[in-house]
Write a structure and sequence with these properties.
Helix content is 27%, strand content 29%. It has 5 helices and 8 strands. β2 and β3 form a beta hairpin.
């Protein structure tokens, strides 16, 4: 074997080892779902990734309450996997159970929730001006499975792009989100754009 082949094998082994170290243990998906079911106030949720500073990313569980959209950071940067297994299609594979458990008993709509991580966000439903789905490929996602991108345009002109991790029903999530935002007190007419 040549020296370059040996180096290639060592690099591949190191990368697979790193992926194994960064992957949640098998069975944690149900642990995450159990933790999320106990969040207050009751809210439906989805798992999304948002780019940060161009090359970094943050993984969120995004909760939609009667009052606001709350993003809880539940993982640090997410590297693209070398080998995608079936587990990667489950959105609840991505959150770290240890990160999710930090939010137990915290009111998602409180100031304390936002203070738990600088990356957490809260958007009052009445501030959402437009919701749309983009199913085009997202540059930089590599081999990470995702179901599209939800875009939120706010009244102040800012936009958030939430990339739906794993297999999620993107059109249904967008419709639910649009409906919730359009029925919020003081909300403008929220449009669904394809």
């Amino acid at each position: 074997m040549t020296k370059s082949v040996i180096v290639g094998i060592v690099v591949c082994a190191a990368l697979f080892g790193l992926q194994a170290a960064l992957t949640n243990k098998k069975g944690t998906e149900s642990d995450v779902q159990a933790l999320l079911s106990r969040m207050l106030p009751h809210a439906w949720n989805f798992v999304a990734l948002e780019y940060c500073y161009g090359i970094l990313n943050r993984t969120y569980v995004v909760f939609v309450t009667d009052e606001m959209i709350c993003g809880a950071r539940v993982r640090g940067p997410l590297p693209a996997p070398l080998l995608v297994t079936e587990r990667w299609s489950d959105p609840y594979f991505f959150p770290r159970p240890s990160h999710v458990s930090r939010y137990a008993g915290i009111d998602l709509t409180s100031a304390g929730f936002k203070k738990m991580s600088l990356a957490n966000f809260q958007i009052p439903l009445g501030e959402v001006e437009k919701v749309w789905l983009n199913s085009d490929p997202k540059w930089g996602m590599g081999t990470v499975p995702y179901s599209g991108r939800i875009h939120l345009r706010l009244r102040n002109g800012k936009t958030r792009e939430l990339i739906l991790l794993g297999k999620q029903d993107a059109p249904s999530l967008v419709e639910r989100l649009r409906t919730r935002c359009s029925t919020a007190p003081g909300a403008p007419e929220v449009r669904l754009v394809s």
